[in-house]
Design goal:
Blueprint: H1 3-11, H2 18-32, H3 35-47, H4 49-53, E1 56-57, E2 61-68, E3 75-81, E4 88-90, E5 96-102, E6 105-112, H5 113-116, E7 131-135, E8 140-143, E9 147-153, E10 158-163, E11 170-175, E12 180-185, E13 199-200, H6 203-216
Antiparallel strand pairs: 1-2, 1-13, 2-3, 3-10, 4-11, 5-8, 5-10, 6-7, 6-9, 11-12
């Protein structure tokens, strides 16, 4: 499956219908996670100035945008987790489907952000998980943008993500240790760093990550 076929597959999918999204994403993620296909997508990303500029380091993982459809807002992202454990929960700006390719993580679900905290300005309240699962290679899931969750990944965990159109201008991040929340806005609304450890990745770093993923057999 190519990026063009990914777009075609999702053209008939409503992101308001999560079962449709999950069924389409499950097919796409299986095909796109084949090492040869994933390697070709990576190399395409590395040669594309816009996609390459989207490669970022965050406090617990690195994010690589392998494909983006400007018309529909569909994105294909690869996440590579570090060995740093960050105790945070958050919702998202867009609904998404994810498939673990390597490693795994413990996944906690808490509830819709409006039910958990109310408005964006509402004070934080302690979180208690309503669902806990182990996410392992070969399994995928689909999450609505309003749902608050947290993940505790094994070092070197890799996941492939199909992200839908962004429908929220911001999302809330809850510090589980301090019991406070902060708001992160989209890159289009805020220039520069918003989070500790956040920065763009340079071409040398991209090459190093590719070498590691090749050695691990994630891509070829």
């Amino acid at each position: 499956m190519s990026a063009a076929l990914l777009d075609e597959l999702f053209d008939a999918v409503s992101w308001q219908e999560l079962e449709q999204v999950h069924d389409a994403a499950d097919k796409a993620l299986v095909a796109l996670s084949e090492p040869r296909v994933l390697g070709a997508l990576w190399d395409r990303m590395a040669k594309d100035e816009v996609l390459r500029h989207s490669a970022e380091n965050f406090n617990a993982f690195q994010k690589f945008v392998l494909h983006e459809n400007d018309r529909t807002g569909l994105r294909l992202r690869l996440h590579v987790f570090s060995d740093r454990m960050v105790e945070e929960a958050h919702n998202h700006r867009a609904s998404f489907s994810a498939r673990v390719l390597r490693g795994g993580y413990r996944h906690f679900l808490y509830g819709n952000v409006e039910d958990v905290w109310g408005t964006e300005e509402a004070p934080a309240r302690p979180l208690s998980p309503r669902f806990v699962q182990e996410q392992i290679p070969g399994l995928s899931y689909t999450l609505h943008h309003a749902f608050v969750h947290s993940t505790y990944a094994l070092p070197g965990t890799v996941s492939l993500v199909v992200q839908g159109p962004r429908v929220r201008p911001s999302f809330r991040i809850y510090d589980l240790a301090k019991g406070v929340t902060r708001t992160r806005v989209g890159a289009g609304r805020e220039a520069g760093t918003q989070e500790a450890g956040e920065r763009r990745l340079d071409p040398a770093e991209l090459a190093a990550v590719r070498a590691t993923l090749t050695e691990q057999g994630v891509l070829t």
